Every structure is written in C-alpha cells, then in structure tokens.
Amino acid sequence: MSKRGFALTLLLLAALLLPAAELYAHAIAKGDKGYIQEIFGVHLIPFAYLGAKHMVTGYDHILFLLAVVFYLYRLKDIVVYVTLFAVGHSVTMLTGVLLDFGINAYLIDAVIGFSIVYKALDNLGAYRVWFGVQPNTKLATLVFGFFHGFGLASKVIDYDIAPQGLLPNLLAFNVGVEIGQLLALTGILIAMGWWRRTDSFFRHAYTANVAIMCAGFVLVGMQLTGYFVS
Q1: Which of 15, 41, 69, 179 has a 20 to 30 Å separation from 210 between CA atoms?
Q2: From the CB of residue 162, how many other CB atoms can be counted at a distance below 10 Å?
Q3: How many domains does the chain contain in total?
Q4: SS3 call for 201
C-alpha cells in the first residue's frame, strides 16, 4: 500500500476508534440515560432515535458490517447477509431485555471485537490456508449477529427502562437500530463502490483487511483489559 493509502486507512480506523475511551465504562450518554429513566409509557420516536444513534455511532458494529460486505458485489448477496445479521441481533436484543438477561458488557464487547477479527481473517482467506476449509459465512454472520444483539441488550438494560410500555419501546429501539444500520451501510456501500472503481482496490484490499483485523484485536484487548481492571 502507498504511504498515502496507508495513512488514509489509519485515519479511518482512528476515527472509528476515537470514542473508545468511553468504552471502558460502557457508558451511555448521561443525558440519554437520564431522559429514559424519567419517562414512563410508550415513547416510540425517542427510542427509535436512540436505537439509530447507537448503531450509527457503534464503530464495532460498523467495522463488522464493513468486513461482511467488503467482497460482496451483488445487491442480492448484501441483502442476504445484512438480513441475517439484523435477524441475529434483533432476536437476542429483544429476548435479552425482556428476560432481563445480560452478559457482562466487557466480555460481550470482546466477542464483538473478535467477530471483526474473524471476518477480516475470512476475507484474507486464512481459514482455507490454515485448515483447508471454508467456514459457512452466512451461518457465522447470523451467530455473530446473536452476540451483537446481546451487546445491544446489555446497553438497553443499563437504561433501566420503565416496565410501562416496555415492549413497544423496545420494538421502536430495534427499528431505530435497523434504520441506523441502513444509514451506516449506505455510507459504506457508497465509499466501497467508489473505491472498487479505482485501480487501487485490489492492490490495497489485503492491507485494508489486515487493518480491520488489527482494529478488532485492539477492541478485544481494550475490553478484556477493562474487564480485569474494573
């Protein structure tokens, strides 16, 4: 990769990981949390907004989406994989909150970081080289969607939402998550579409996936460090 391309890759990853300092506390914005704890009943628009905000600012989710669609060219394939991911995180987010079943936020976010590493290695063809087999990428996307959903559930549980109107509010939050996912995916596809039309794509695709993998390892390390020092 050229020095300019490498610098741009580092800047992109830095922009995605810049908010990571707050990750150690797994903090939800104080204003959002205070507002949610003070309201009762059904509030669809605020919860949809919070869901969209969480996904658009969720750099770990965005990195995973980027890795998933990196080598997908046909819209049909993109729809299949994104749908599997959406189904996975929707199921575990809703059931996790309704059953009040949360996983330690540091540990589940470490798994989410590992999902980024896993998919980047898949893009690099590592599993065929190391093990002589190609994992089922659709199944892996669904399974990691489940883990991403548990991550969402842990954040929602921390909101301490009032039981009045819980289900419709959760559904609104989930709709917001999907809206945020579509917005993030649109941005990714526009950028990828432009990049793929240039000669640099195939020259730099390998390095870009290595950078994505490294970002995943950084997230895993941060979360495990947070778990052991918290």
Answers
A1: 179
A2: 15
A3: 1
A4: helix
